[in-house]
Amino acid sequence: MMLFRRELLADTPDNYRYHTPLREALGLPGDSTAALDAEQRGRLRELYAQLQAEHPRSSAAFRIPLDFEVGVVHGIASGRLRVAVGSRCE
User: Fold this and answer.
1) From CA 66, how far away is CA 74, in angstroms rounded?
2) Could you tell me if 62 and 56 are in contact, meaning their C-beta atoms sit under 8 angstroms apart?
3) What pTM value is reported for the model?
4) What does residue 68 show for φ and ψ, rounded to 5 degrees?
5) Residue pLDDT, tens place only, 3-46
6) How far is C-alpha 59 from the chain's CA centre?
């Protein structure tokens, strides 16, 4: 487990490996595939809204929250968008 230092994220906000220990240090799941309750999802939204404000050019600060949201587009299959709804795709 990597110890988290906020300075690392400030210096390199696009390094995805620094985001996992940040979430773990705040008591949130580090794994983006973990099941989240509404409170955890809200805390993640707040965290990444803050990171987006601090690092407006960071692609990671904008991309990572998409892993935690329900109803996010996960990919294209056979030319058709697959949208996650809960744990299933339509």
Assistant:
1) 9
2) no
3) 0.69
4) -95, -15
5) 567 788 888 899 988 888 888 888 888 876 667 888 888 999 99
6) 11
